[in-house]
Amino acid sequence: MPVLNRIAAFAEDMTAWRQHLHANPELGFACHATADFIVQRLQEFGIDQIETGIAETGLVAVIEGQEPGPVIGLRADMDALPIEEETGLNYGSQVPGRMHACGHDGHVTMLLGAARYLSETRAFRGKAALIFQPAEENGAGAEVMVQEGIMERFGIEQVFAMHNSPGLPEGEIFTTPGPILAAADTIEIWLDGAGGHGALPARSRDPIPGAVALVQALQTIVSRNITAQDELVISVTQIHAGTADNIIPESCYICGTVRSFAPEMRDLAERRCAEIAEGIAAAHNLAARVVYTRGYPATVNTPDEAAFAADVAADVVGEDRVDAEFGRDMGAEDFAYMLEARPGAYLLLGAGEGPPLHNSGFDFNDRIAPIGASLFARLVERAQPLKAP
Question: What is the pLDDT of residue 389?
Answer without folding.
Answer: 63
